[in-house]
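A brief tutorial aside. Many learners find it easier to grasp structure tokens once they have seen a single protein encoded end to end. The record that follows does exactly this for Nuclear transport factor 2 family protein. Read the sequence first, then the structure, and try to relate runs of similar tokens to stretches of the chain.
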Amino acid sequence: MNDRHVALIRAFYDALSRADLAAMESCYHPEVSFGDPIFQEVEGRDRVMRMWRLQLGVRDGLRSDCRDVTADDHTGTAHWTARYTMAGTGRQVVNEIDALFRFDDNLIVRHHDEFDFRHWSKMALGRPHGLLFGWTPMWRKTIRDRAAQQLDALGPA
């Protein structure tokens, strides 16, 4: 167990729960990459932080709870729960997420979140879209493309 890396993961989620982007950014390596079922792959600290700004903007009142944090000298894991209201739909979301981390220079250089896209889609988007289409590759591509366009439109900080 690497206590420094465990503390780094906890500091990241504490900052996320406060929407403290500067503190979140301080946990990331300049060459960080992020991935999840929606954004897939985002490269570089500036772009990853732009993604988090976007996420915090479309998730009203995000509350995050982190648990089961483990880390060694190279990798770490955590389970976190994201609770928020989806701004575009007004729907309540409780998303259970497993996070994987890699470290370099005692910073997070890789962050990957994994969650059930279909379950998220039903909560975030409701019927008929989330319920009927949440499992289809075409719907996933639509959501991913929209997220990428929003990220590109946001521009640098």
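Self-check: The chain has one domain: 3-154. If you spotted this yourself, you are ready for the next section.
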